[in-house]
Task: structure prediction
Amino acid sequence: MNNLTPEMQALKAKLKATWMAGEYATFAKYLEPGAIEILSNLNIAPGSRMLDVGCGAGQIAIPAARAGIKVTGVDIATNLIEEARRRAEAEGLAVQFEEADAEDLPFPDASFDTVVSLVGAMFAPRPDRVAAEMIRVCRPGGRIIMANWTPTGFVGQMFKVNGQHVRPPAMMPAPVLWGDESTVRDRFRAGISDLKLARRIYPSFKYPFAVPEVVEFFREFYGPTNRAFAALDSAGQTALRRDLEQLWAANNRSANGVTHVEAEYLEVIATRA
Result:
């Protein structure tokens, strides 16, 4: 895999374990309505070839296949690819799901009309390679579309809280830099004929339970939060839980035992030169 150093091999193994932890398929059920709404605004033509990078359990790939798009999804997490395949088979959808690395996509040049990543590719440790690979596999005139959490948005702040308790990997740029406009322009400075960036609010970031249960839900099912808690002793877990509950409570726009926050992301639409 690109002649990785032992340190990078270890980091990638840790990242894979992170995304296989918890149960992302359960976690993503609350994100899927928003994914479907985002997909509906992308105007991807039925019959066109779409690659979903960091596809998870298929939360955007499967709705795209329902719409008649020829979809391929890739992810580093073995269990998520298996879950995505089960979901597609249950619906009789012809989707190709493969375990693969966003930094080393196993496809020929210009294989896809559209390359999509919904808060997925942003978590790979070498962003310049991710950008180069997405550009490489997209046909000239095709689009690379990303939705990336911003540093100042709610999810970016949640990652910041996690990082205050568990130090992020030293070799890895902050994933939320994919939500910074100037950084994205730099990463897509070559091979792109047009680049449109817009800050948007995720269409549905709502949970039908109170803040403490939301934090517990993330701890149980969302890999990064699951692993952050697992790295701490009892006192550290208590402190992390307190800080996360404070963040959620401060941003909660609902009452009556439900939780709704506005989670900002950067929409990236790059046209392949």
Q: What stands out?
A: The chain has eleven helices and nine strands. The chain has a mean pLDDT of 96. The radius of gyration is 18 Å.
